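A student in our group prepared the protein record below, which I am reviewing. Thanks in advance; the entry in question is below.
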Amino acid sequence: MKKIITICLLTAGFYACNNGGTETKSTTATTTEPAAEKPAAKADVTDSPDFVKGLELVNNNDCKTCHKVDEKLIGPAFRDVANKYPNNPSTLDTLAHKIIKGGQGNWGSIPMAAHDKLSVEDATAMAKYVLLLKNN
């Protein structure tokens, strides 16, 4: 019995080392055609000054009481807001004023509290941060 086990183990070892005893050679054709261009990698938005400034403002205010990045809390997830709206000056203005004045109805019946002590500049920076979270 020991001889059979030894033979099986040796055979398995040779098979593993020799790739089954068959040798395959791969050939690659050399062409002078340019390689297909790969799509550019998406830039890391976390390096953006707008992202950093907006994140700091969000963290230093009460935003996270009602919002999370990827899941609904009391208010919508920031990423859901980003995916709903286009990133353009009109949207930034609308969202900044919504942050300052508060409101109700765009995301259900729960109202968003006003943040009237925020400047338009800070509210716009917060809106830029949120819109940078858009999924592509």
Q: What stands out?
A: Residues 20-24 have pLDDT under 50 and may be disordered. Residues 72 and 109 are 14 Å apart (CA to CA). DSSP finds six helices and no strands in the chain. The radius of gyration is 29 Å.
